[in-house]
Amino acid sequence: MTRLLDAQGLEIAGRLAATDLAIIGPQLVCLVGPNGSGKTSLLHALAGIGSASGTVRIGGADARTASPSVRHRLFSYLPANRELLWPLTVRDVARLGLAALENEIDAALETFELTGWADRRVDRLSTGERSRVLLARAFAARSALLLLDEPIANLDPLWQLRLMDILRRSVSAGGQGAIVALHDLDLAARHADRLIIMKNGRIAADGDPAEVIAGPCIPAVFGIQRTREGWRPA
Ligand SMILES: Nc1ncnc2c1ncn2[C@@H]1O[C@H](COP(=O)(O)OP(=O)(O)OP(=O)(O)O)[C@@H](O)[C@H]1O
Q1: Using CA positions, which residue lies closest to atom 17 of ligand 1?
Q2: 148 against 3, higher pLDDT
Q3: Is the Cβ atom of 197 under 6 angstroms away from ligand 1?
Q4: What are the residue boundaries of the structural domains of the chain, listed by start?
Q5: What number does the ligand 1 atom closest to the CA of 150 have?
Q6: Has this prediction a pTM greater than 0.80?
Q7: Percent of the chain at pLDDT above 70?
Q8: What is the tens place of the pLDDT at every residue in 16-28?
């Protein structure tokens, strides 16, 4: 199977590290962990944001040294911060910096039900609506790997489910890989092919979602446990 992601020795300003991370073939990987556990830092390191060091190969290519247009084909990064206070239209933002074709932009706008809003200004949208615009941009690039930081934050319940479904289809049919940071353990476990738990900047558990969720790592890392009424403090 194709080695989609191969990352080694990831470090950001000497403070956090993930020694080895590989994705073999298309996979939806959900990344969970308490606040400050390093989810964003890991995504930053993979996307080459800030002073990250280490090696990141996506589809065999060096993601760090690739030109911007090639980089978009390798990965798309959705930041947790959805501020877009520019007088740009939805379509402008969806194509921002991408070498994507117009029909790829159109398809992504349609997927996120933004076609009728293509000429609306993003600084006049709600936070959840802006999230959909940035998600459309991330999908329009048709990158080998999606790196999404809390993509469901600000989305209403229907769009949370729709997004997980879009991701599922994109990974299964489109052959994409995705690493998605989430706080919703149940949503992550239900949709992921693989669940990674972060703690103190390290990977504390990595494997089959049902096994990871049922294992000892959740109470140890999050201080919660599952009861018949749902998650409760351990
Ligand atoms: N720019 C920075 N400089 C120094 N330390 C930072 C910086 N950004 C984050 N950190 C620290 O790195 C650790 C991991 O932060 P990170 O944002 O990766 O966590 P996270 O798991 O994404 O958290 P959250 O769930 O709150 O979004 C935290 O202790 C944080 O204080």
Answers
A1: 40
A2: 148
A3: no
A4: 3-233
A5: 27
A6: yes
A7: 97
A8: 666 789 999 899 9
Distance of CA 127 to the CA centre of its chain: 18
Report which protein residue has its CA nearest ligand 1's atom 3. 13
Q: Which residue has the tokens 């690493």?
A: 179
Do residues 80 and 31 make contact, with C-beta atoms less than 8 angstroms apart?
Answer: no
Mutate-to-test residue for ligand 1 from 12, 16, 40, 203, highest number of ligand atoms within 8 A of CB = 40
Task: Kindly report, residue by residue over 50-94, the tens digit of the pLDDT.
Answer: 877 889 999 889 988 888 878 889 999 999 998 888 899 999 999
Distances (CA, A) of 157 to 79, 120, 154, 172: 20, 24, 9, 23
With CA atoms as reference, report the closest residue to 162 among 185, 191, 182, 126. 191
Assembly ipTM: 0.94
33 lines ligand 1 (CB under 6 A): yes
Q: How far apart are CA 50 and CA 225, in angstroms?
A: 36
Ligand 1: atom nearest CA of 37 is 21
Q: Mean pLDDT, to the nearest integer, of 202-219?
A: 94
CATH class in words for 3-233: alpha beta
